[in-house]
Amino acid sequence: MIAQTWPVGFRCLLLLALVGSARSEGVQTCEEVRKLFQWRLLGAVRGLPDSPRAGPHLQVCISKKPTCCTRKMEERYQIAAHQDMQQFLQTSSSALKFLISRNAAAFQETLETLIKQAENYTSILFCNTYRNMALEAAASVQEFFTDVGLYLFGADVNPEEFVNRFFDSLFPLVYNHLINPGVTDSSLEYSECIRMARRDVSPFGNIPKRVMGQMGRSLLPSRTFLQALNLGIEVINTTDYLHFSKECSRALLKMQYCPHCQGLTLSKPCMGYCLNVMRGCLAHMAELNPHWHAYIRSLEELSDAMHGTYDVEHVLLNFHLLVNDAVIQAHLNGQKLLEQVNKICGRPIRTPTQSPRCSFDQSKEKHGMKTTTRNSEETLANRRKEFINSLRLYRSFYGGLADQLCANELAAADGLPCWNGEDIVKSYTQRVVGNGIKAQSGNPEVKVKGTDPVINQIIDKLKHVIQLLQGRSPKPDKWELLQLGSGGGMVEQVSGDCDDEDGCGGSGSGEVKRTLKITNWMPDDMNFSDVKQIHQTDTGSTLDTTGAGCAAATESMTFTLIGVVMLLPGIW
């Protein structure tokens, strides 16, 4: 009863002492060795020695004393030592691999949600504000956001091309419904001519260029970030199943299973001995350490830089505002565009038709566009920050792997008798080498030769992705004020951070306000009751479809809006 209450460590110490005593007096039976051999499913116990005997046929577990091992047992132990090593590696890397793979999946899922949300914002904008063209625009909106997703997740698509395709397809709709409204052209050839003319007549001003700039700056870093995470998983999977040299395999066998041959089934290797073996076996893997450290640092730098118009969340969720600005820009220059299109495409042969109406759910139309308030903890940027903070703990993972395995899994605790490769001793007396290939020249336990082509390939991949990550880490200058036009028309001055290709959908704390100066641009058949507002903050957007008209206007007046949507004649 008393024996059952002894601490486990004390009982192990007692057993080690008994084993040491048995060793010094000579092992009388191989029963424990046979049991452990069978328990590990290394093979049948038939033919195994019942008692120690001479073993001159052994190749690694050589001893002058009688042994409990046969040549076949030694071969089985060699396989077991290799399997044990792979298991140790997989166990050591499991938390790191789970961290990266879980976050890679979470980031992809979040991006998919953002793309769908941005697509819904844009669709509802057309449905609520430009209802007559909503159904015709649906296919172009869907194609655009499909291309956004394909690009983000690694497909070979060009952002400049799909941005241009979207605005090319938008121009015929704007022309038919806003610039020359009331009837719909029956000629597909004429619509195609208008589409092709878009880049010549620039109906949307510099907005397509701004969209290209925002998409390029935000999508490419996110795409590279995801690709880098997938490479991280590939690196870990490769090192988990690394092939070990013959010298290493023999050293692992000698360290882990040769004691069994002398009946020392409970012994553990000395710490110094374990470090020499593991540092020798993992010398090539340790060469990954500076590159792995640089990989994590580059991920961190890119993540830190992905804010404002470099933040894909900001860009996608504010895309619909730029689309609205583009439509307004074309309408304001309608007469000029009408003349330009007539010169390029001629006057159309037109037949009056009824444009299909938006088929969105009425409750969505009634309540307009709303964004659920997002907690700061839920943003993509904060998720990236949490991930990087966790990943930073693994910066020296490959450099300290050998030491970690010995300290946590393999070596005997300080002060306990331990195996030195030949016998049970109080301490290991050989020189202990450092990590890495260069340090192994004096390793007494493992001879390390040449380089490992698999590790070299991984290093090359890490170098490549580090270059990509560093190349996608923007260092933006202070963004300048945005000028949308000159002379008569619309001039937009923005407080906050913007440049020539950026929209300001709100970032940071508080609301970003836009000041519009309206000069003599209004068509004769439009009044200020047709102007309504979007209220936008950094936590969400509300499209107010019930707002009252503005106060009386002078020929030149200035007013402040928090975003703007204009409902133009003939489209509500």
For this entry, give a set of tags.
signal; disordered N terminus; rod-shaped; disordered C terminus; two-stranded antiparallel ribbon; heparan sulfate; lipoprotein; 20 helices
What does this structure look like?
Mean pLDDT is 77; it is low at 1-25, 362-377 and 475-572. Helix 4 (71-129) crosses helix 9 and helix 7 (188-201) crosses helix 16 (334-345). This protein has a domain at 80-265 and 289-351 and 381-393. The chain is mainly alpha-helical and 572 residues long. It has 20 helices and eleven strands. The strands form five sheets. It has a three-stranded antiparallel β-sheet with strand order 5-6-10, with no helix packed on it.
Number of strands: 11
Low-pLDDT residue spans: 1-25, 362-377, 475-572
Share of helical residues: 40-55%
Q: What class would the helix/strand composition place it in?
A: mainly alpha
Q: What characterizes the major β-sheet?
A: 3 strands, antiparallel
Instruction: Name the strands of the widest sheet in spatial order.
Output: 5-6-10
Radius of gyration, Cα only, in angstroms?
36 Å
Number of helices: 20
Using the alpha-carbon principal axes, give the shape.
rod-shaped
Query: For the terminal residues, how far apart are their CA atoms?
Result: 89 Å
Mean pLDDT: 77
Portion in strands: 5-15%
Organism: Cercocebus atys
Pfam families: Glypican
InterPro entries: Glypican (IPR001863), Glypican_CS (IPR019803)
Keywords: Cell membrane, Glycoprotein, GPI-anchor, Heparan sulfate, Lipoprotein, Membrane, Proteoglycan, Signal
